[in-house]
Amino acid sequence: MKKEAEVLDMDNVRILSFGGGVNSVAILVLLAQGKIAPVDVVLFADTGCEMPETYTYIEKIVKPFCKTNNIKFATTKNQEETLLEHCQRLNLIPSRQQRWCTDKWKKRVIRKYLLTNYPDATKIVQLIGYAHGEERRADNCKAENPQYPLIELKITRRKCKNIIRSAGLPVPVKSGCFLCPQKQVKEWIRLYREHPNLYSVCEQLELSSRCNPTLYLNFPKVGTLGNLRRRLEAGKKLPKLPKSVQTALFCSLGFCEVYLEENHMEYAHFDSSKLLPLLEVSV
Ligand code: SF4
């Protein structure tokens, strides 16, 4: 942890934006080893829809590790509703393009936590876990005062796993919401096999969605989550699928909003309820 005098220096607060995935856990280990300058808090923005393995990992591994190493860990969340409750209430599923989910359940709750806990801070540095090899994403990052310790130290994602193992910790699963539309088909299949109850929540969301019902998978050869489930139940082979253009990795950093593809609509401050009229037109 920072020395007392440094902690009191509210002009320059440092946080680790923590998503519970491989990259952010590797940074946590490097912090504990003193290989990265200390942070004031390791901050986890909980959408309420993270993978069950991520919650377990945080409780059983991350929190005890932080306690042992005198690192402050905090969780922050949208107090009004979880991302799932929001989707169910408005018959929506998160959008690949207009990432209002990240804005409202990650970015804004992080900002609110910082304003509440560090009201006098004039500069807040956010450590973001892009690994070496992901420089393009860092170039697109819209966070204020970001730092990329893994890029600076030339640490790849593979090396992150070694860092975690060599600290005696298990490697976490890929993090991100179970209902994330950025998942590849193979990840949907894994969700179906390992968490059928969560898969059926997503299937139901998709069915009641005001969006095009194939929006979740977005692969014409597979169709809906219901189609995928029926194929799996019948033991049918899946058609050869294109690799998804995106993965849920960005949210494993607790900072998925920073990954903007060209031509994607700016979604900072995007209000998902305003999406409804647009969707109704397209139905
Ligand atoms: S993991 Fe996916 S669903 Fe969750 S906030 Fe990020 S983009 Fe949205």
The parts where pLDDT drops under 50 for at least 5 residues are: 1-8, 244-250, 252-283
Mean pLDDT: 80
Q: Count of helices?
A: 13
- Per CATH, the class of the largest domain reads Alpha Beta
Return the CATH topology of the largest domain. Rossmann fold
Structural class: alpha/beta
Ends distance: 53 Å
The general outline is globular
Fourth CATH level, the homologous superfamily of the largest domain = HUPs
Molecules bound to protein: iron/sulfur cluster
Q: What is the total tally of β strands?
A: 5
Characterization of this structure:
The protein has 283 residues and is an alpha/beta fold. The chain has two domains: 4-166, HUPs (Rossmann fold, 3-Layer(aba) Sandwich), CATH 3.40.50.620; 183-245, no CATH class. The protein contains 13 helices and five strands. It is globular. The model is unreliable at 1-8, 244-250 and 252-283 (pLDDT under 50). Residues 47, 94, 99, 101-102, 105-106, 176-177, 179-180, 182, 248, 251, 256 line the site of iron/sulfur cluster.
